[in-house]
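Supplementary Methods. Inverse-folding protocol.

Structures were first reduced to a discrete structure-token string of length 155. This string, shown here, constituted the complete conditioning input.
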């Protein structure tokens, strides 16, 4: 598939949900590992007793960046390489909001809606996808973001 054909095919999907990922459970061990890796050991993440006493959350909560980092896994669940594509590159975010705390034991999954696709140059498509990270059993998502990704094609 040429980049032009890919652009045409993806353009037809603008405004449509293009993927829903598998569920991932966030537990305290994951939160602790993330805290260790990022050197962000703030007590609201790693001290369950203190967090239960001193926060309105009833216990610890996941780091916002831990929640966001799961987006890569969710994208792997939803997006295969396009024919002729050699790689995909995370290009960043236009908008990102953390709407609801993620507590240990919560299950998350990503919902993706294609918002825009454009030819960035003869070898790259820039895709803007709205990602909503659902918390199982809750009305308010953990986060919403407009995620930019480059699909790089063979010259």
């Amino acid at each position: 598939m040429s980049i032009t054909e890919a652009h045409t095919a993806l353009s037809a999907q603008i405004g449509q949900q293009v993927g829903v990922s598998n569920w991932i459970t966030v537990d305290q061990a994951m939160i602790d590992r993330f805290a260790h890796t990022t050197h962000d050991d703030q007590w609201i993440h790693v001290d369950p007793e203190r967090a239960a006493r001193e926060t309105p959350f009833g216990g610890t909560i996941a780091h916002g960046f831990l929640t966001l980092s799961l987006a890569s896994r969710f994208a792997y669940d939803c997006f295969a390489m396009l024919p002729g594509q050699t790689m995909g590159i995370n290009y960043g975010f236009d908008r990102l909001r953390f709407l609801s705390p993620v507590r240990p034991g919560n299950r998350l999954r990503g919902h993706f809606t294609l918002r825009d696709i454009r030819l960035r140059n003869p070898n790259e498509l820039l895709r803007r996808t709205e990602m909503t990270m659902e918390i199982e059993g809750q009305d308010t998502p953990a986060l919403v973001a407009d995620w930019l990704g480059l699909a790089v094609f063979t010259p």
